Amino acid sequence: MYSLGKILSTTCIRRSKHSMSVYYKLPMSLYYKTLSHQQMPVTKSTQITQDKEESVTFSALRDIISLKTAYGEFKFPSIWLRDNCQCVSCFQKESQSRTIDWAHFDFGVKPSNVKFEEAKLLIEWPDNHKSIFTLEWLIERSFTEEKRKLFRAQVYRFERVTWGAEDFEKCCKKFNYQTILNDESVLLTWLGSLTKYGVAIVTDVPPLANSTKSLIERVAFVRKTHYGEEYMVTSKNDTTNVAYQSTVLPLHTDLPYYCYAPGVNFLHCLVQTQGQGGESHLADAFHVANYLKKNHPEAYRVLTKTLIDWNDIGHENGDHFHSIHQAPILCEDERGDLVRINYSQPQRDSHFNAPLEQIVPWYEAVGLFTRFLHSPEYFVKFKLEEGEILTFDNHRLVHGRSSYVDTVGRERLLIGCYLDWDEIYSRIRVLKKRQLPKGSL
Questions:
Q1: How far apart are CA 79 and CA 342, in angstroms?
Q2: For residue 88, which of 132, 33, 124 has the smallest C-alpha distance?
Q3: How is residue 153 annotated by DSSP?
Q4: Neighbours of 88 (CB within 10 A)
Q5: pLDDT band for position 431 (50/70/90)?
Q6: Model confidence band, residue 439 (pLDDT cutoffs 50, 70, 90)
Q7: Where is 167: in which H helix or E strand?
Q8: Closest by alpha carbon to 222, among 400, 395, 424?
Q9: What is the 8-class DSSP label of residue 154?
Q10: CA–CA separation, 88 and 336 (whole Å)
Q11: Residues 431/436/438/441 CA torsion (nearest 10 deg)
Q12: Residue 49 belongs to what H/E stretch?
């Protein structure tokens, strides 16, 4: 480790009013890893010429370190670098976790010495602690807008493509049940399609009550709710849930009264009515919401800002429940991207915890939204066949069902389960990493 003084005595120096740059020659081949379309690092090789000049620069307060490299300029906060030291006393490789105790951390720390050679940034801190960062590690975690967008779209939540009615058949892909269970590449393709389009159908499913659970356990585990791990969708005489009737089931999302509503619905058709009706209804509510945002911005704003009381009061298998959650119909994240739809006429409470002047505009906005959801441009219906599992994004799609007439002795029966998006995203990342070329991270 060299002090700044020693570095300056052996290299070219560039000074300015606010910064000091240290230049050196870097004769080497740099191997670095970038985020690919597979959401995981892959190896690339880049040759750096003998006369290529690189630099490391401090800001005036030494709170920012700038690296000028063959791949562009990258800036890193000094405190972030100290917080992310990769040495064995600060980071546990097995658990991929920091072990720094913030109760004893200097939040105003600045580096005392710095060096950049052989594609490594070496830093010495005032307490003589030393940190080493490879250029590949730094580039993957750089603060450029490009890298941050890439991480969000390819590692954090993956790509989404919304659709209307005319694109539904192209977007709703089918996958064989047994192939998903036996082939990890097919498992990954199915989960990727479900993530991207919000819907997929699994075919040739064994006519067993636990087939859906077995499919979910190929990914992670069933999300349990107050309806249990599995629930039977069939016509019942004594029920507090409108889904357990043979009447029309309006478009809705499931369980909007949960703070964290289940992410993905699984509906296994064990018995389909041979009579009239029973068609499944779907619409991509994100697609409709995006249209509203562009063409009816005030209605969109109202639907993102007005809190609604969603509730479920009833009983299931002798257990009574009373669930409430307040959230708007359209939920955005801090970047303004849609992350969840709440939409269910039966599960909307008569309590409306909003100012009086917001009520009528909300009804006008939700009326417009509802009209588009049911329009031929966005609304699709089809009859799920026996031996199929309809899988779809409960945070994004609204679903429903036509009324139907049961056939005596062949009553319509679907088995339902839920799976959370957190588990799906985790599984996708693990599968992608497994499929990287040998030798890649």
A1: 40
A2: 132
A3: I
A4: 9
A5: very high
A6: very low
A7: none
A8: 424
A9: I
A10: 39
A11: -90
A12: none
Backbone angles phi, psi at 260, to 5 degrees: -115, 90
Amino acid 244: pLDDT: 64
Type of residue at 133: F
Q: What is the DSSP letter of 222?
A: P
pTM of the model: 0.84
CB atoms within 10 A of CB 149: 10
Q: Which tens digits make up the pLDDT trace of 396-405?
A: 999 999 998 8
Residue 74's contacts (CB-CB under 8 Å, 6 or more residues apart) are 66, 67, 138, 139, 142, 143, 144
Q: Which two tokens stand for residue 152?
A: 């969000």
The token pair at 164 is 């209307």
Q: Is the pLDDT of residue 36 over 70?
A: no
Could you tell me the two tokens for 375?
Answer: 């329009």
Tracing tokens 């913030």 back to the chain, one arrives at 102
> Which residue type, as a one-letter code, is found at position 15?
R
For 82, phi then psi, to 5°, come to: -65, -40
Pairing state of beta strands 72-77 and 91-92?
unpaired
Confirm if 425 and 194 have CB atoms less than 8 A apart: no
Pairing of strands 264-271, 389-393: antiparallel
Give the closest residue to 342 by CA, choosing from 357, 358, 327: 327
Q: d(Cα 28, Cα 39) in Å, to the nearest integer?
A: 28
Look up residue 287 and give its two tokens.
């697609």
Strand positions, DSSP E, 285-420: 308-316, 319-327, 330-332, 338-341, 380-382, 389-393, 397-401, 413-419
The string of pLDDT tens digits covering residues 4-27 is 333 222 223 233 333 333 333 333
Read off the DSSP letter of residue 3. Answer: -
Residues 373, 283 contacting (CB under 8 angstroms): yes
CB atoms within 10 A of CB 343: 24
Cα separation, 304 vs 92, in Å, equals: 42
